């Protein structure tokens, strides 16, 4: 009986890529979904207390009934964009502008024209 050789794949630290984050600095950030208030982005400052003194950046300018958010590179240009699932309102997408305020001032675009009661949002 022939046995195939076992192959080992060695992964060195050099091959572990920095996590992609919304501002592409490798430090995980936070997006907060707010009901009837503008959603916010908090950028990790890289210190021991990563959000101490960090001012939230507005995601869009309208306070929707947000029940779900998702960070994904929806336009496949290498930066993370924000999907916003809103209850009884249109769901929105905000495209990352690749600045130090990656979503600030970005106008949201509707994902669909109907105003559904969205409670979860994802991609695939
Ligand atoms: Ca970051
Ligand atoms: Ca993108
Ligand atoms: Ca972009």
Descriptive report:
This protein has 124 residues and is mainly β. Helices cover 0% and strands 23% of the residues. It is built from no helices and 7 strands. The chain has strands at residues 30-32, 39-42, 57-59, 66-72, 81-86, 92-94, 109-110. The strands form 2 sheets. The chain has a 4-stranded antiparallel β-sheet with strand order 4-5-6-7, with no helix packed on it. A 3-stranded antiparallel β-sheet has the order 1-2-3, with no helix packed on it. The chain is extended. It starts with 29 loop residues before the first strand and ends in a 14-residue tail after the last strand. 22% of the residues are buried. The model has no long low-confidence stretch (mean pLDDT 90). The structure holds calcium ion (CA) (3 copies). The site of one calcium ion has 5 residues, from loops.
